[in-house]
Design a protein that fits this description.
Length: about 220
């Protein structure tokens, strides 16, 4: 399949959020990545349900909601109602992960589990069959603009092997420090959904950057 690009609005201008949503709408982006942080699971607070609802009102692309919160099962229905097309919960935040994943699917959302850089891929073996997508964190969650962690490539090799064995349709998302310099190598390593925050919104021409993430190897800038 062709890979998907999901700009993260964490790096957007929150005072001009509608403008930045329209920018994504009119770009080659496939998804809109929404980072929800609670100041507990991660040392940062970002945005919550009212903002997700406001984004959904203007979004023409599916919302890929990444919950970096403790006990995310408390809010799954709320995020579905706020407009989430897919819901990502963290392995590290869910003691009853199987039940949490079933609830996400019963709500009609795509179910995704994220793992932090220190969490080994092997821990996903008994849940992978139930998932639509796995998110490999390539930075420690909590902040945009961090340096990509190279061990991600090893983790991609591991998740690719599990995917081949148990769930060939599984999507593999990479989140953190993705940009025009590493996306081609990440595609080669087996990832097919790419979150990009700073690479997009800190660039001079965000739409052109999205286009070049969508077509790596092709010079999309004139
Ligand atoms: O989930 C997170 C951070 O915790 C991400 O989605 C960031 O928003 C990605 O930002 P960049 O590393 O691409 O700037
Ligand atoms: Co994210």
């Amino acid at each position: 399949m062709n890979h998907l690009v999901a700009p993260s609005i964490l790096a957007a201008d929150f005072a001009n959020l509608q403008r930045d949503i329209e920018l994504i709408n009119n770009s080659e982006a496939d998804l809109i990545h929404v980072d929800v942080m609670d100041g507990m699971f991660v040392p940062n607070i970002s945005l919550g349900l009212p903002v997700v609802k406001a984004v959904y009102k203007h979004a023409k692309k599916p919302l890929d909601v990444h919950l970096m919160i403790v006990q995310p099962e408390r809010y799954l229905k709320d995020f579905k109602e706020a407009g989430a097309a897919s819901i990502t919960v963290h392995y590290e935040a869910c003691p009853n992960l199987h039940r949490t994943v079933q609830v996400i699917k019963e709500l009609g959302c795509k179910a995704c589990v994220a793992i932090n850089p220190h969490t080994t891929v092997a821990l996903l073996e008994d849940i992978i069959l139930d998932l639509d997508m796995v998110l490999i964190m390539s930075v420690n969650p909590g902040f945009g603009g961090q340096k990509f962690i190279d061990n991600t490539y090893k983790k991609l090799a591991d998740i690719k092997a599990l995917k081949r064995r148990y769930n060939p349709e599984l999507l593999i998302e990479v989140d953190g420090g993705v940009d025009e310099t590493n996306i081609a190598k990440l595609i080669d390593a087996g990832a097919n959904v790419f979150v990009a925050g700073n690479a997009v919104f800190a660039s001079a021409d965000p739409s052109a950057t999205i286009a070049s993430l969508k077509h790596p190897g092709i010079l999309s800038r004139s």
